């Protein structure tokens, strides 16, 4: 079964991006960075979501991201599904920080339980079929709107939204053009999906 192992973001300044992500989130090798100034404009078609256990963790990560230079897109708040907010990193990548719990469940921590790569698809059913044909296993699917894939090991997973729905979650316009400035590493043979997201073989990276 195919699965996701890491993501690589293309960033304008490698040194600045390294400083930002170390200060903001403290992510490990699930996130990789590559220096590049390839042209892009508007929404890049994806978001990364940090899933945590309680509101205080959301507040802590959101706060350090903003202090490190991120731009708030949606302030932290309670909603029907839990508690969370959205920021845009200085390199342009969009990060949602969320907990399904609206109440504290333990002592304050900065532990990130899961990182979810959310891809915006023009045609979710077609992209779903494409990923299944490339060895991914569906665990949740809501018609033409959302798909979640199985992740056999590790705290990094993959989901599909419609591009418009994902932009709404992120608090941005769905319009955009140019490179995604994202490479996805997995237990796969290299391929490019219907929306132009490039996958590389993790064993070769």
Automatic annotation (TrEMBL):
Keywords: Lyase. One of its GO terms (molecular function) is lyase activity. It comes from the Bacteria. The keyword Lyase applies. The keyword Cytoplasm does not apply. This is Putative lactoylglutathione lyase.
